[in-house]
Amino acid sequence: MKVLVLLLLGLLGLVLPGLGQAAAPLPEAWQATFFEAPAVALPLLVAAAVQHSAALEAIKTDQRITHEDLQMARKAILSSIILSNNFGYGNIASVTVADQSLLPNVGTTSSHTHYSTAINLNLPLDRLLSRRNQINRQQLQCQKLEHLQQAQEDGLRQSIIELYQTVLLDRKVLALRQQAYYSAQVNYQLAEKQFKAGEMLLGEVSQLNDRYINAAIEQQNAHSRYETAFMVLEEFVGGKISVLMTATAK
Length: 250
Description:
By secondary structure, this protein is mainly alpha-helical.
């Protein structure tokens, strides 16, 4: 008889929680996207994480600095170019020429303006020879930063996938723990009634009470793990998931 009662309690524990509770509200639109459409949710999470990443922003800043250094390396030779000019005014007779017949007649004067311009390159030879190497180094540095940016983005994608899967798993575990908790609660409540009616021993009621307490503890732990995983994911992407999941729908 006792075995039959315990089996009945177990069956009621699986059935009554659903009957004793109000119907669960329909999930919001963002929840359907987040939990049931990973092909949509993951790109949104990755895009938000990339925009929120301080490490990526630091790499982009280094890229801008390196680009400026590259422009400076290309223009460095201009600082060694000297532009000089000469301006004069005088009598042409004072100019020495090979053909004396070209000189003006004695007693006549002819004044002219003289203007000359020269470009001089004052650059050490070693700097001139290493100019191309300096430019190449800056270009290689730009390429290195591009690879670092790609590696950082790949790492963010991997982290998002792991955090996302953790949230889904903890949510499923929480649902199972809640079901076990409701079942243990109903079993214990029915056992109390059986005990008061003299149909169950105190030791059996104590065992069901222990199961109920353990189920309650496991349910709270599962709820804490799920909330923690969800908040960690939101912190990683830098925004509310409910907002991110509905951003494209607006």
